[in-house]
Design goal:
- With 144 residues, this protein is α+β, with helices and mostly antiparallel strands.
- It is built from 4 helices and 3 strands, in the order H-E-E-H-H-H-E.
- The protein has a 3-stranded antiparallel beta sheet.
- The model has no long low-confidence stretch (mean pLDDT 85).
Length: 144
């Protein structure tokens, strides 16, 4: 191939690339109406924390002879729910005692087991609280 034909091929390639890039940018600006910036991804709405209601300390005998001492607070869905939870305090404490006393030491030792216990308490307490609890918080957690 001669030097002249190589130069012509390179020039044609540069022109084609230029037309391709220019055409793409023109299509984005005029046809698809983009501003040239990256599209904004919708961010997940961050859930605001609700009011915290302490329901106290619990010391229960676990199945098999061990014991658990914990302090539990509940995150209410809103201020109205906070008042409802305070009104049902005795029922909530009873439900916590029932759930905890039916657990064995192996049901509370690992982080995964505690998370499972948290979810079970959330479910059981929401039965009493008519769905007004959005989280169960363990402020202390001691077992032996």
């Amino acid at each position: 191939m001669s030097r002249k034909s190589i130069m012509i091929t390179v020039a044609i390639g540069v022109v084609c690339v230029g037309l391709g890039v220019g055409g793409t940018l023109a299509a984005q600006k005029f046809i698809f109406k983009t501003t040239g910036t990256a599209p904004v991804v919708a961010q997940a709405k961050v859930k605001e924390p609700g009011p915290i209601v302490s329901i106290g300390d619990f010391m229960v005998n676990l199945q098999g002879g061990a014991y658990l001492k914990t302090s539990i607070s509940l995150e209410a869905t809103d201020v109205k729910a906070e008042a409802a939870l305070k009104a049902k305090d005795a029922f909530l404490k009873d439900k916590v005692n029932v759930v905890l006393s039916n657990k064995a030491l192996t049901d509370v030792q690992t982080p995964e087991a505690r998370e499972k216990l948290r979810q079970e308490l959330l479910k059981q307490l929401n039965v009493v609280a008519d769905g007004k609890i959005q989280n169960v918080l363990f402020l202390s957690f001691i077992y032996q």
